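Appendix C reproduces, verbatim, an entry submitted by the partner laboratory led by Prof. M.T., so that reviewers can inspect both the input and the predicted structure.
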Amino acid sequence: MRRGTSERLSNETEITVQVDLDGGNVKIETGVGFFDHMLTLFAFQARIGLEIKAKGDLWIDAHHTVEDTAIGLGIALTEALGAKAGIERYGEARVPMDETLASVVLDFSGRPFTVFKADFKNPKLGDFDTELAEEFFQGLSRSARMTIHAEVMYGSNTHHMIEGLFKALGRAVRQAVAVTGQGVPSTKGLIDG
């Protein structure tokens, strides 16, 4: 069973996450419509089961909700992967969204590092500040202890650019968590950083 859960309770947010790497229901409720849409697309492309329930201090803005959801997702993914035995470990995807081309390359390496390259022309999509896309990728990288290189290679529509990144992330995760062998995919014999 490749399942993981996390629960995060702070003065800013209350977040629960359930992940099933082998599929299942997708139900996302963060209170931020655009973010819910992106997480749903991510889960669909990753072909994972994902349930997220988040309550945050949205009267301030969506920053804490987005960042803490990323942290919770990363913790749940880490639990679901266990010792990472047999997984592919690396994943990469390029996704076109009309005029946009987005790329995500990642490694469940045990070493959190994020490279994020995107120039969003629109600062806000609904209740979602577009700069929070980078915060999400950074929070996920730290908590899942993985390296992520995310880039919008070109594009002009901000919605398409962020959607392309989340879809590419999903497809890259799907590739990386696929069980294709035996043992830990590292010459060290373990993945710990």
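The first strand starts at residue 3 and ends at 9. Additional entries are available on request from the coordinating office.
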